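Lay summary. Proteins are chains of building blocks that fold into shapes, and those shapes determine what they do. In this project we predict the shape from the chain. Here is one chain we studied, written as its sequence of building blocks.
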Amino acid sequence: MDERHWQLFELVSSQLDVTIENLVSSTAFADLGVDSLGGVELVMEFEDAFDLSLSDDAARRIRTIGGAMRLLDDNRW
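And here is the predicted shape, written in a compact code that computers can read:
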């Protein structure tokens, strides 16, 4: 796992109060209790942490940790 992916896991863990050991790439944010408002807040955290600016469409497609990892890979700086 590269550094950005590790940072993503740490961010999700801290924001959702879940241990990193319970997170895998297939973990769905809905399974972690993230509703639509929580999803918006989480995307804003991703944007701040990784200096991203995501379109609404891209943000809506992030449903799993793996999806967020792919988004980071597609937006390398």
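What the prediction tells us: The first helix runs from residue 3 to 16.
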